[in-house]
Amino acid sequence: MINSIYKALCISITLITCVSQNTNAQNKYIERNGEIRFEASENLFEEVKAINKSVTCILDIETKQIAALALIKGFRFKNSLMEEHFNENYIESEKYPKATFKGKLLDFNYSELTENWLELEVDGKLQLHGKEKQVRSTMKFQKVDGSVVMKGSFIVTPSDFEIKIPKIVRNKIAKEVTVNIDFKLVQE
After folding, report:
1. pLDDT of 2 higher than 50
2. Which of 71, 51, 93 is nearest to 180 (CA)?
3. In the chain, % of residues over pLDDT 70
4. CA within 20 to 30 Å of 107's CA: 37, 90, 124, 136, which one?
5. What's the CA gap between 52 and 72, in Å, rounded?
6. Residue range 140-163, pLDDT digits in tens
7. Strand 147-156 to strand 173-187: parallel, antiparallel, or no bridges (unpaired)?
8. What 3-state DSSP class applies to 63?
9. Is 36 helix (H, G, I), strand (E, B) or coil?
């Protein structure tokens, strides 16, 4: 348990260091309890979805860089057996304990953020299960009480990350997985 906490702490520190090099503190916004939800449900079968409420995300408003880290074992399912299969058989969370995203906000200008939603493109690389995929998606941003709120979604497939789905359950899991994010980043 302590070893897992130590690893998570080291990963978080590495993530923060990578994004924050050569920046001033007032340019960084951070979320330590962000949410990522994913759904891979198929009609007529048991719901396949999970949520992770302890995702770390950092945004540098000057460089427009954004990075996020989710520990795989942080995803919670309604069904504990599904969670076990997800970690042991599909994602192999002992071998691949984290998912990361590193990218950039395109056409981002912090001074343009208001309480009204603004749609911006995010472009970067998602790393999961030891594989990397370029992801580009439109996300919604707003400024609320000095914090930056970011919401949106994107689509990935298990095959993007060489996640093998056994033939016996292949029809019960969607070919495309919808990933939703919800972050409220505060100035560090």
Report:
1. no
2. 51
3. 87
4. 37
5. 8
6. 999 999 999 999 999 999 999 999
7. antiparallel
8. coil
9. strand
Question: Which amino acid, one-letter code, is at 74?
Answer: G
Cβ count within 10 A of residue 102: 18
In the beta sheet, which residues pair with residue 147? 144
Residues 101 and 167: their CA atoms lie apart, in Å, by 30
> Letter for the amino acid at 27?
N
Strand ranges (E), the chain: 28-41, 49-60, 65-71, 98-105, 118-128, 131-144, 147-156, 173-187
Residue type at position 107: D
CB 136 within 8 A of CB 105: no
CB atoms within 10 A of CB 12: 16
Rounded to an integer, what distance in angstroms lies between the CA atom of residue 183 and that of residue 33? 8
Mean pLDDT across 31-52: 93
Q: Tell whether the model's pLDDT for residue 12 goes beyond 60.
A: no
Give the model's pLDDT for residue 26: 82
| CA pair distance 139, 73, nearest whole angstrom | 25
Query: Shortest CA distance to 122 belongs to which of 25, 57, 26?
Result: 57
